[in-house]
Write a structure and sequence with these properties.
This protein has 429 residues and is an all-alpha fold. Helices cover 64% and strands 2% of the residues. The chain is built from 17 helices and two strands. A two-stranded parallel ribbon has the order 1-2.
Length: 429
């Protein structure tokens, strides 16, 4: 069955990392039959899930070790928050140095070398989420060793999807969102041959999360005033504003990407310019370093200062825009959520100043900002709604989050006219 939803979503920015390139929204067409082949791909999908979990644990450890060494001068996984670093003037150079080292690995012929390259970038303060390299780990091995696995290039990209979905399920503890993300963004057709490998990876990733971690939500949602009609209207308007911001981000990202591609044509070292804003912002506001995941609970409990909200929502947005455009890292999920949450909270402060009679929940505004930013940038509005619920386990947020995510999608859709070509891959069954 053809997935017509990809026609709506293909304008959004991809959340895959450097491996995906233009393969987001690719179509896979399979001939019916060959049940044995379906079972084989499903087994490989489960294997992709296991590989993703193992690689994810290793990459997460590597990122923490690099962070401790680069910002605190010690090999430790418990070095502390980047904002507490006493590196001083060296904060200007650490992100650029990490980007410099990563260029050697990104330019390598082997896809798996790009995984430590991303880990180095993240460990030295780049504004991208750790889930980025985790999501593409299995796909990197599948693309590199597809001849040994006896799979075609399109089947290797199917395993890339299975691994990416497994990464979302494992890292965030969001298996339903992981499956929806694959259905909305990455699968051009729906059939058992395509769904079973992805579902196998999602199951492995979800089970691994709950076995290795716990059943607690990824973020803790704060309490606040109950939902009312005025607040629901405000939340929907916030979704529209964040969605408009997302559309502008997509346009700006594509413009910067074209610029860096021209510079890269002359010399790849020009890409170091993309890391310069990260270093400058990190020196002036250390809270802007990294993906900002450590501030997620603070945002969703509204226990933040206006300075932190501005740094995460505005300064990090600028550094993220430059770095992801230059290095083609993909948007990654965590950074989008943090930027959106900070913007939602910042807009909530403005609303309270302008209309003090309307009672709103600032924590809810932060969650709405997260969902609306994700929906506006990626166009996966249904995933945005479910992901917000799976991350927080906050059932009362269903209605306001749904209204905001749909509003963000609706307003951002007509504002982006540039369409990316979709790669059509055929798998021989």
């Amino acid at each position: 069955m053809k997935n017509i939803q990809t026609l709506l979503y293909r304008n959004g920015l991809g959340i895959h990392s450097v491996l995906s390139e233009d393969k987001e929204n690719f179509k896979i067409i399979l001939r019916e039959g060959h049940l044995r082949r379906t079972f084989y791909l499903s087994a490989l999908g489960a294997g992709a899930g296991l590989l993703t979990v193992g690689a994810g644990m290793l990459l997460s450890w590597l990122v923490r070790m690099l962070t401790g060494l680069a910002f605190f001068g010690k090999l430790s996984t418990d070095a502390g928050m980047l904002a507490d670093s006493e590196a001083g003037i060296w904060l200007l150079f650490i992100p650029v140095a990490g980007a410099f080292v990563s260029l050697f690995l990104i330019g390598a012929r082997y896809p798996t070398w790009k995984l430590p390259a991303l880990a180095i970038c993240i460990g030295t303060g780049a504004p991208i989420g750790t889930e980025g390299p985790v999501m593409v780990a299995a796909g990197a091995f599948a693309l590199q060793d597809r001849q040994r696995l006896r799979i075609s290039e399109a089947e290797a990209h199917l395993l890339l999807v299975a691994g990416a979905a497994a990464g979302v399920a494992w890292y965030f503890g969001a298996p339903v969102s992981a499956l929806l993300l694959a259905l909305e963004l990455w699968l051009g057709t729906w059939s058992l041959t395509l769904l079973l490998p992805v579902l196998s990876g999602v199951i492995v990733g979800g089970v691994a999360h709950y076995c290795l971690s716990d059943m607690n939500p990824f973020f803790t949602m704060g309490s606040g005033p109950a939902l009312n009609a005025g607040a629901l209207l405000v939340y929907t308007v916030l979704g529209l504003i964040v969605g408009l911001t997302a559309a502008l981000l997509v346009r700006a990202s594509r413009g910067l990407t074209r610029l860096f591609n021209r510079l890269k044509y002359h010399s790849p070292w020009w890409l170091l310019l993309a890391a310069v804003p990260v270093g400058i912002a990190g020196y002036l506001a250390p809270e802007s370093l990294g993906n900002g995941e450590v501030y997620g609970n603070n945002l969703l409990q509204a226990h933040v200062t206006l300075q932190l909200v501005f740094v995460v929502g505005v300064v990090k947005l600028i550094t993220w825009l430059f770095f992801t455009s230059g290095y083609n890292t993909g948007t990654t999920i965590t950074t989008l959520l943090m930027i959106g949450g900070a913007l939602g909270l910042l807009l909530a402060v403005v609303v309270q100043l302008v209309c003090p009679s309307i009672v709103i929940n600032p924590a809810m505004a932060a969650l709405i900002g997260m969902s609306a930013m994700f929906a506006g940038v990626t166009r996966a509005w249904l995933t945005a709604i479910i992901l917000a619920l799976e991350l927080t386990h906050c059932q009362p947020a269903v209605l306001p989050v749904a209204c905001a995510a749909i509003a963000a999608f609706v307003i951002s859709f007509p504002l982006i006219k540039t369409k990316r070509d979709t790669a059509e891959n055929k798998v021989q069954g």
